[in-house]
Structures are given as structure tokens and as C-alpha cells.
Design brief:
The complex is a heterodimer of chains A (333) and B (213). With 333 residues, chain A is an alpha/beta fold. Chain A has 2 domains: 173 residues, Rossmann fold, CATH 3.40.50; 127 residues, Dihydroxyacetone kinase, domain 2 (Hypothetical Protein Tm841, Chain: A,domain 3). Helices cover 32% and strands 24% of the residues of chain A. A 6-stranded mixed sheet of chain A has the order 1-2-5-3-6-7, sandwiched between helices. In chain A, helix 4 crosses helix 8. The longest helix of chain A has 17 residues. Chain A is globular and about 55 Å long. The N and C termini of chain A lie far apart (40 Å). Chain B is mainly alpha-helical and 213 residues long. Chain B has one domain: Alpha Horseshoe (Serine Threonine Protein Phosphatase 5, Tetratricopeptide repeat), CATH 1.25.40.340. Chain B contains 9 helices and no strands. In chain B, helix 5 runs antiparallel to helix 6. Classes of the chains: A alpha/beta (333), B mainly alpha (213). At the A-B interface, helix 3 of A face helix 4 and helix 5 of B.
């Protein structure tokens, strides 16, 4: 394992210390329990947005704390769900009297811990609503699994709902919007290499030099299938076709196209992916009216990418364009 | 069951969680994310620190709630809320009691199991800890209905949990991360059912040979 770390046991702690040192103007980092909150929290009268999950997906979620997005993020250990005491501390720190929305990626650990946290917050008279994001079409959604994983749509939901909260929407309205974003978004990812969890010290899975994993999750979970490496044109087809078939997206739709790096794939390759995706969608009459390209929901140093498509309406488009000022995403402010 | 016996049971579970840390993690690496033993051991070590400093009390309910809250805040993953809920519900059922009869114990364990099922939405046969705890509760209640002594009832409960744990081997997981493997999860013993068996076994071992109440 080659990593720029001091000790595997100190990765989260030292990274949070770095965040605190770098961004004290915008963020407050608390320990015991670990939470990252807006420096100006609580914002009185505004619905507060709290998310969280295992570390290792940076900039998600801590990099999206700030004006126009999240009020707090709860980081767990690398790829391990945070605990309810963190979420409760975050809820208390950011609740401005208008309630708190929990945005939860659909992983059993995250869901159960956020459920317990919502009960604890309720016992302290903090109004909490939770929305579970489950946009990964690589996983079969059936009664016999834990359901689809929450991946790229999480970033889009945090941005769009953060803007709505900033505009003074109620908790019920922001939660409903969040469900609408989730219902209109689909994602799928792929990996060229594995990633190495610092505490494990060895790659999560093995991929041959000429292989790729299609449908991989953001923790290196197995995907739909392992295939021989193929040109980008074909890889984009393998990811985008299941996405547009699933909702389905149709000719005339306007979409936000999000091409995300799993951490190890450089921007130059993401633009090649985006170019292929744009052509794929154009050929089906689907108009890309907004895009996001870069490493926003990563899987440590894994090479690979994911594609997320969100079917936009006018309200979502306007909220996407609204000002945001976080360390991971910033425009208009 | 006295307060000190309940305390002994928690300590015995912590010891067995430590001794089986690698075993539980190996089971989890086959169908999960290879951290169950590590997480349970971390949680139970934190529990030991907490109950050492709990001070003068004989409230078994308070003891069990302390265990539950500690597990909730230290274990993470799915096991933290599930084991946390098990102990919190047992603690609620035993609230204010300094002595648990066999029937009290059975009622507390049943309440704990109900909490786990509510939290995790798992049914019998989903390849989870419910598959060990359900037969444990059923065997306990059946033994007590037969007039068995407390220690004998606990032994039968542990044997039933072991049977339930082994019965998870051929099952296809329907909950948690293992469910993503579909058919590939068959052939592996469920790590959560295994730690649940260890929990019930620790109770039986703690009471072995002691006079039943």
C-alpha cells in the first residue's frame, strides 16, 4: 500500500484536522463526535440539511457543507457508516428552528444509523425528515435485496435541496423536492482498478490488467459484470444505456449529465467520457442542459467513472443554478 | 438473575467477542465488508470501559441501556443500531429491576428481538441475526413452559441459537450488504447470526451450574 498517510488509524482524524486548518472561514470541524458544520450555523428560520456516510468519498459530504448546500456532514471511518450520536450532535448544532432534512445514501448501515438518529432528535423536539437516495441502476431493486445503492444523485440532491432551503422552503417542501430529485435520477459506475482501504492495507478486489468492472459501487462492491477493457465509446454505452432505459429518459427530455471520477481517473479522461455521453444522448434526442464533470463522489484512489443523469424541470434547473459556496462546489457566490 | 450476574453476562460476551474477532471478520469477508468482528470487539471494549465506571446501582435495565447506547455510538455499520436496539429494548423491559426471573429474562430477550426486527425489517430466513435470536427466544419460552430451571432453559436457548446460526449457511441473504451477492451468499454462515449465538451462549455459560430462579 502506497498512500500519503501517517498511520491507517489516524487517517480520518488527520484529514479532519486538515479541513479545519484550511477552511476555518467557512467550516467548523468538531470532534467527539466528528462533525463538519457551516461556520454560520445555525441559520435561523432555514431548513437545515444534514448528510453523512463513510469517509473515502471526498469531497462528499464535508466538501458540500456551506451556503446553498449542506449545513452539516457526519463522516464515519473510511467506508463505515457514522453513528447516531454524530448525527444527533449535527442536528442540534444546525437546527435553526425550521427542522432538519437527513439525506441518506441507501446502505443498510447508513439507513439504520440515520433512523436511530431521527428518533433521538425527535425525542429532543427537533423535527427531522429523512430521504433515502437510491439511484444506482447496477443493483437489482427487489424485495430480496437491500435495494439500490445511493451514489451520484446524492451530490445533485444536496445541491438542489440546499438551494431550496436557502430560499426559505419548508421542511416538507424540501423533503418532497429531494424525493423528486431521487426519483428522476439514475446512475451507473465502472472501475478500471480497485481501491485500498487504509485499515485493510490491500486492494478490496483484484482486476486483471485488461479487465474492467461494470456496475461497481462506491466502496468497490462487485458490479454487474467483469469484462475485457473496451474503447470509451463502448464503455459509455454500457453505462448510459441501462440508465436511459430504466427511468426511462425519452426524446425531448432535458437532463443534467454528471460525469464523475471514482478518484483516480483524471479530468482529461472524464471529458472524453463526457464527449461520448453527449453524443449518445444527442442521438436519442435527449438534451444536456446542465453538466457536472469532475471527482465529486469518489471511492478513494479507484480509477473509473460513474455517469448520473437527472431529468430536469424548470424548478430543479433554477435551483441548480442558484449560488453555492462550499469547498467542493462553488458558483454565483 | 441478579445485577452482578447480568454484569457477568455482559463481560462474558465482551470476552467472547474479543476471542472471536478474527473468526467473525472472516465470516463477514465472505459475504459482507469484512469488519463485523472488528466492530463488535471495538464496541464491547467500549462497553467494558463504560460499565466499569457505572457506579453504585442495581438497576439491570439501566445497565442494559448503557450497553445499548455505547454500542450505538461505537460500533457503526448495521451492527451498531441492531445490537444497540437489542440491548436498549431489553433495558426498557428490565427497567427498575434488580432481579430478573426466568420469565422476565425471556420477556426482555423477546422485546430485544422484536426491536431488532423493527429496526432491520428482517424476517426469519433472511440470513441475519434474527435467524439465531428467534429460535433462542422460542426455545427459552418452550423450556420455561415445560417447567425447566433457568440455567437449563438458557442452555436449550443457546443450543437453538446454534442450530439457527448453522441453518443460515444454505440461505440466500435478503438484507444488508450480503443481499447484493444474491445466490453467491449461499454456502456461507451469517456473521450476525454467529455473534448473536455467542451472545446467547455467553448467558448460558455465565449461568451454568448456578441455581435457577
Amino acid at each position: 500500500m502506497k498512500k500519503l498517510i501517517n498511520d491507517p488509524a489516524d487517517v480520518l482524524k488527520e484529514a479532519l484536522q486538515g479541513v479545519a486548518a484550511a477552511h476555518a472561514d467557512r467550516l467548523t470541524v468538531l470532534t467527539e463526535p466528528n462533525i463538519i458544520i457551516r461556520a454560520d450555523a445555525p441559520v435561523q428560520g432555514k431548513v437545515a440539511l444534514v448528510s453523512g456516510g463513510g469517509a473515502g468519498h471526498e469531497p462528499l459530504h464535508g466538501g458540500f457543507v456551506g451556503m446553498g448546500m449542506l449545513d452539516a456532514a457526519c463522516p464515519g471511518e473510511v467506508f463505515t457508516s457514522p453513528t447516531p450520536d454524530q448525527m444527533l450532535a449535527a442536528d442540534k448544532a444546525v437546527n435553526g428552528g425550521a427542522g432538519v432534512l437527513h439525506i441518506v445514501k441507501n446502505y443498510t448501515g447508513d439507513v439504520l444509523n440515520f433512523e436511530m438518529a431521527a428518533e433521538l432528535a425527535g425525542a429532543e423536539d427537533i423535527e427531522v425528515e429523512a430521504v433515502v437516495i437510491d439511484d444506482d441502476v447496477a443493483v437489482k431493486d427487489s424485495l430480496y435485496t437491500a435495494g439500490r445503492r445511493g451514489v451520484g444523485a446524492t451530490v445533485l440532491a444536496e445541491k438542489i435541496c440546499g438551494a431550496a432551503a436557502e430560499q426559505g422552503k419548508s421542511l416538507a417542501e424540501v423533503a418532497e423536492l429531494c424525493r423528486r430529485v431521487n426519483a428522476n435520477a439514475r446512475s451507473m459506475g465502472m472501475a478500471l482498478t480497485s481501491c485500498t482501504v487504509p485499515a485493510a492495507g490491500k486492494p478490496t478486489f483484484e482486476l486483471g490488467a485488461a479487465e474492467m468492472e461494470i456496475g461497481v459501487g462506491i466502496h468497490g462492491e462487485p458490479g454487474r459484470e467483469r469484462k475485457a477493457l473496451a474503447p470509451v465509446h463502448e464503455v459509455v454505452e454500457m453505462l448510459a444505456a441501462p440508465i436511459v432505459d430504466d427511468l426511462p429518459f425519452a426524446s425531448g427530455d432535458r437532463v443534467l449529465a454528471f460525469v464523475n471520477s471514482m478518484g483516480g481517473t483524471p479530468l482529461i479522461e472524464l471529458y472524453i467520457v463526457y464527449n461520448e455521453l453527449n453524443q449518445f444522448l444527442s442521438a436519442r434526442g435527449i438534451e444536456v442542459s446542465r453538466n457536472l464533470i469532475g471527482p465529486y463522489i469518489t471511492s478513494l484512489e479507484m480509477q473509473g467513472c460513474s455517469i448520473t443523469l437527472l431529468k430536469l424541470d424548470d424548478e430543479m434547473t433554477a435551483l441548480w443554478d442558484a449560488p453555492v459556496n462550499t469547498t467542493g462546489l462553488r458558483w454565483g457566490a | 438473575m441478579s445485577y452482578s450476574q447480568a454484569d457477568d453476562w455482559i463481560r462474558a460476551f465482551a470476552a467472547t467477542a474479543a476471542a472471536n474477532k478474527v473468526y467473525l471478520t472472516e465470516l463477514d469477508s465472505a459475504i459482507g465488508d469484512a469488519d463485523h468482528g472488528i466492530n463488535m470487539n471495538r464496541g464491547m471494549q467500549a462497553v467494558l470501559g463504560k460499565i466499569d465506571g457505572i457506579g453504585e446501582t442495581d438497576d439491570i435495565g439501566a445497565l442494559l441501556k448503557t450497553v445499548g447506547m455505547t454500542l450505538v455510538s461505537t460500533v457503526g455499520g448495521a451492527s451498531g443500531p441492531l445490537y444497540g436496539t437489542l440491548f436498549l429494548r431489553m433495558g426498557t423491559a428490565a427497567a427498575g429491576k434488580s432481579e430478573l426471573s426466568a420469565d422476565d429474562w425471556a420477556a426482555a430477550l423477546a422485546a430485544g428481538l422484536a426491536g431488532v426486527q423493527t429496526r432491520g425489517k428482517a424476517e426469519l430466513g433472511d440470513k441475519t441475526m434474527v435467524d439465531a435470536l428467534t429460535p433462542a427466544v422460542d426455545a427459552l419460552q418452550a423450556a420455561l413452559a415445560d417447567g425447566a430451571a433457568f440455567d437449563d432453559a438458557l442452555r436449550r436457548s443457546a443450543e437453538a441459537a446454534e442450530g439457527g446460526m448453522k441453518a443460515t449457511i444454505p440461505l440466500v441473504a435478503r438484507k444488508g450488504r450480503a443481499s447484493y451477492l444474491g445466490e453467491r451468499s449461499a454456502g456461507h454462515q451469517d456473521p450476525g447470526a454467529t455473534s448473536s449465538w455467542l451472545l446467547v451462549l455467553a448467558a448460558a455459560d455465565t449461568f451454568a451450574g448456578q441455581a435457577g430462579q
